[in-house]
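Morning!

As promised:
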Amino acid sequence: MSKLGFELVCVDCRTAYPGLEPRYRCDCGGTLDVVHDLKAVAAAVDRDTFDRRRGGSAALDRSGVWRFRELILPLEDDRAVTRGEGNTQLYDTPAVAEYAGMKRLLLKHEGENPTGSFKDRGMTAGTTAARLLNMNRVACASTGNTSASMASYASIAGMRAFVFIPEGNIALGKLSQALAYGARTLQLAGDFDAAMRIVEQVCGREDIYLLNSVNPFRIEGQKAIGFELLQDLEWHVPDWIVLPGGNLGNNSAIAKGLMELHELGWIDRLPRLAVIQADGANPLYTAFRTGRPVEPVIADTIATAIRIGDPVSWKKSLRGIAAMNGVVEQVSDQEILDAKAQVDGAGIGAEPASCATVAGLRKLVANGTIDPESMVCGILTGHLLKDPDVVVGYHTGGLDGIDAHHANAPISVPDDLDAILAELRRI
Ligand code: F0G
């Protein structure tokens, strides 16, 4: 173990590298884990330390990522690139619970992060690693949220940001953010998977730090979703955590973090994990069902955030699913948008990919995998306003192949009080 208290270890061949270097893969091609010296962590902090920090006023303690820094990326106080990320609500949602067939359902809304998605948790760690490595140019491929987040954090850190996005296949809210925060935005004539392949090559050639979730420090930051969820629950372990899967960084991260808490003895068991994919972008689902390695597919779904056919973190993902006795489910675009109508209509709201969580949960309850009496926490990954086109398209009946069962179309009225009063009594 290096004196930093962590090192990078290959998921495939277990080769170890010193903790802090601009490296995303092992020489054998395998992805890398940050492996912490958990004995040293246990000697330095405990659960109470994290709880005390939660009420504190220091910048690092206020962040729902850096509050857990010993388990993420130990650092000096003034080095973090932070926007006070995390601290997201855990909603108790009777209406959505009923729709899913559950007695009770808790939804942690990661869309309440500074740039509107869970990516900020990984990005604060990734850009901080870039700063510690003296890298001043960063890049990512993205279906939109990673690029929005990276653009913001890079700007705060004074770094140049380059984003690679699939042309025509990213939601408007996300594209707006990348442009607004000043990232140089390259629209690729290809899908996300093509953009991902290119950006890894670009960062291999140029002195640019890659901030996709193949970057092991991104995964470390994203672990904090699980840490904060446990803290929200006063360290009571739920029966299930349910979340969407695309490039598969997030479920890998949550599993890794919870496995560390378990190893530390800070939780007495692991929850089960359910990863939900769109049926048009389902390589993990197929691998899980067949017991074979992930084989890439050409992806297509209205939930553009998870329109990914060749996920980078699939080995880490399957490892976490195995450790947590997890399952993988798939849902159609219709099921995603029906569930979204429930999440939105409950006053909470989330982007389409997030609502795969609720659609998948409903399916897993219906097929008997999840007991309706069990304690389930779903993760909503992105904000409602990320994808306004889908919302307006749905409510105005303008989405091809989708039945808008819960449409709430705007109503045109004349500029006339009596006509408006008559209309109000009718609707
Ligand atoms: N939900 C949302 C809203 C996302 O943006 C993503 C991924 C996921 C779920 C899936 O998470 O990739 O860790 O399995 N978005 C990426 C991006 C790929 O570029 O913003 P994952």
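The radius of gyration is 21 Å.

Hope this helps with the figure draft.
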